[in-house]
Amino acid sequence: MIGIHGIAKQQLGRHQLRQLWRPALADGLERAAGHPVGLPPLDIAFYGDVFLPSPTAGTKAGTDADEVLLDDLTDDELADLTAAVPEAVSEQELAAAEADTSKGYTRVPLPLQAAMRALDSRFGPAAGVLYLGELRQVRRYLCSAEIKSTVDARVAAAIGADCRILVAHSLGSVVALEYLRQHPEHHVDLLLTMGSPLGLRMVRTRLPDPAFGTGPEGPGNVGTWVNLRDPRDPVACAGDLSRWWPVVRPAPVDNQGDAHAADRYLSKKEAGQAALAAAPWLAS
After folding, report:
1. Residue 64: predicted pLDDT
2. Which of 7, 40, 165, 184 has the least CB density, counted as fewest CB within 10 Å?
3. CB 193 within 8 A of CB 226
4. Per-residue pLDDT tens for 152-162?
5. How many angstroms separate the CA atoms of 71 and 86, rounded?
6. Spatial separation of the C-alpha atoms in residues 59 and 63, rounded to whole Å
7. pTM, to two decimals
8. Which residues contact 196 (CB under 8 A, 6 or more apart)?
9. CB 193 within 8 A of CB 225
10. Integer Cα distance of 225 and 243 in angstroms
């Protein structure tokens, strides 16, 4: 089993994420199995440091990774992120946010400040930086040949030929789908995606092959594709992925106050059920 992480993991690493993901998935397995189980043999394909800013980039001291996700946007990035806002909030919500200037979000460009207020109002605190920061990093992965080739190589090296289950969160679901497209010879029994942005127009239209896996048979090298989604997760706000990939089995969950958190997705019974269906021995 290989996990593929999401955005803003620049300051972490494989070992740290493995210590978070394995116990969380073990809890999901226990909830599904109805009895105690051991830690699953899950490793992490880590690539977060590819997105580390240069030491000479001038990042302000004391800022965290999530706080710099929207620093120094290019004009093209700003245009694409602005165009993606209506996928997450309505015109009425955006108009109300434009009229409310109580919170300025001065660290982001003016065209995005109302969007940040609207996103936070609909999905909760920090939803704006999560949604827009997610799309920016997904865009960088899909649009920068250098970043994409480095990430893809890291992930391919970590997965290995004997991997039968891919567990992908957030941006990781885009990376996982790309791995499967590039390696049709590698069959996996389960693709488990969580909090995925794949349904967002800005993401789908930038995939190297937007039609990959969208036919009635789905990706030919995937046995089962299960997608966990919290309806309050701003990154997954496009809805069930089965609208575009009909083979996807939707699994709605409730992560409460931290709707996009990987560990909350992993600890759900639905995650454990999907893993046990593909590998019943995980219940022993």
Report:
1. 43
2. 184
3. yes
4. 999 999 998 99
5. 21
6. 8
7. 0.93
8. 168, 170, 173, 174, 227, 229, 235, 236, 241
9. yes
10. 13
List, in sequence order, every beta strand (DSSP E) within the chain. Answer: 2-4, 43-45, 165-169, 188-194, 222-229, 249-252
Torsion of CA 235, 233, 2, 47, to 10 degrees: 40
What CATH fold (topology level) applies to the domain 2-51+144-283?
Rossmann fold (3.40.50)
pLDDT tens-place string over residues 120-143: 999 998 899 999 999 999 999 999
**Spatial separation of the C-alpha atoms in residues 44 and 38, rounded to whole Å:** 18
Closest by Cα among 200, 204, 202, 178 to 191: 178
Place of tokens 């997610």: 134
What is the domain partition of the chain in residue ranges? 2-51+144-283, 65-142
pLDDT tier at 186, thresholds 50, 70, 90: very high
The residue type found at 70 is: L
Structure tokens at 65: 């990774």
